Amino acid sequence: MFTNDNTECSTKISIISQNKFDSWLAKQQLFTKNWCLSNNFKGEKLKILKIPYPDGRLNEVIIGEGQNKDLSGVSKFASSNKGNYYISTKFALCDDLEAQKAWSWGNYNLRSKSPKNLLYVENKKSLNFLNLYTNSLNFSRDLINLPANEINPVSFFNKVKKSHLFSNFHFHDYSLSEIKSNFPLTYAVGKSSNSQPQVIHISNKKILKKDKPLVIIGKGVTFDTGGVNIKPGNSMRNMKKDMGGSAIAISLFLLANYLLKKTKIVLIIPLAENSISSNSMRPGDIYSSHSGKKVEISHTDAEGRLLLADAIELASKYNPNLILDFATLTGAARVALGEDLPAYFSNDENIAKKIEKLNQKKLRCWRLPLFEPYKVKLHSDVAHLCNASLDGMAGAITAALFLKEFLKSPVLPWVHFDTFAWSSGSILSTKGAALQGLDIMIDFLENNYH
To answer: Which residues form the catalytic set?
Structure first.
């Protein structure tokens, strides 16, 4: 997919911003000017134009970036063209690395691992990063895209354990009885399935008591029927992607380990399948977390937050400098922001300001408030709290407030992403697995934890 060997004859791809189109056009030969005019190309997003030599051979490819650094055209071209290429961003708003990452995204294929094309990368350091970036994202996208009869808690766990991507990390293994006692809420969700719940608990270095690591958490519900409160058929259709948060967390862990050489990082992914059986949890059941916080189940389809609660309690024991979690948690966040813009919550204003600074360059997520008065919606007469509000209001906020209750301290720095992890192709050029929130948090960590 990427190479720094340019012995092959490579074709130039010029990415052209709509804002810089006139400047670019003024420098072109008459043939190119007329070709653009004939094809009505002005640098619009997703617009791709192949410019031939007079004898018909391909001379150059130009791809529109639109007015706001939209690189979906690069992904689209990479997904459907073979050959050897190199990219020029001289008249683009993006830089080379952003364009190369878009190329990586478009080159993905679920069932075939042979690259369709090669892109020349001059810098060896960039080449190393791009190869890891590609392998990490492809691994995560496979997890989301593969059907639930192939990806269940046990097979998910084994895929990670056996992958060369994780060969140099420290694994903490749990027996089923240890999961039942240390992750009781995860066990409550997963006990209804024939595929037993699992927990992925990894660190990139040995963690000492004095350390304050970065902890990354992902929701790993490999399929969500909704449980006894069963989902309608159309809502269940793509619930193989309900472990999308864990897939995002995996890529972030791998990339953060590469970029932050001295940072100690922990990855925690509780895994369960929310099935329906005689052993399913029911509305009105009460379960205790490991710390003894009692949760009344008001709705069995609010199961993902139970897994995250277990993981947050474990993460809190590390006294981390940041807990960062990703989850396909609520339909309410999708109603508010749509499928492509993830919601995030944070209890730390300094961290939120840094994320917003990145959003000013390119909007990639949107903050929703931890509005404490809504905590009353989670009130239980028989437990510390309910797992969900049933009034249909502020679902994303009440879910975040539920998670906040499991922090050891309310001021422990924490960021929660409520993401969709899926694309219908409306913005991305590819349908299926999407890793919303990943790139902005890579930038955040690289800027602030280097």
So the answer is: 231, 305
304-317 vs 395-404: helix crossing angle, rounded to 10: 30
Q: Which residues pair with 49 in a beta bridge?
A: 62
The model scores a pTM over 0.85: yes
CA atoms within 13 A on the CB side of 155: 16
CB atoms within 10 A of CB 323: 26
Q: 2 has which bridge partners?
A: 119
Cα angle for residues 224, 229, 230 (degrees, 5° grid): 50
The domains of the chain, with CATH numbers, are 2-122 (3.40.220.10), 136-448 (3.40.630.10)
pLDDT in tens, the chain (450 residues): 898 887 667 899 999 999 999 999 999 999 999 999 999 999 999 999 999 998 999 999 999 999 989 999 999 999 989 999 999 999 999 999 999 999 999 999 887 766 678 999 988 999 999 999 999 999 999 999 999 999 999 999 999 999 999 999 999 999 999 999 999 999 999 999 999 999 999 999 999 999 999 999 999 999 999 999 999 999 999 999 999 999 999 999 999 999 999 999 999 999 999 999 999 999 999 999 999 999 999 999 999 999 999 999 999 999 999 999 999 999 999 999 999 999 999 999 999 999 999 999 899 999 999 999 999 999 999 999 999 999 999 999 999 999 999 999 999 999 999 999 999 876 666 789 999 999 999 999 999 987
Distance CA 100, CA 102 (A): 5
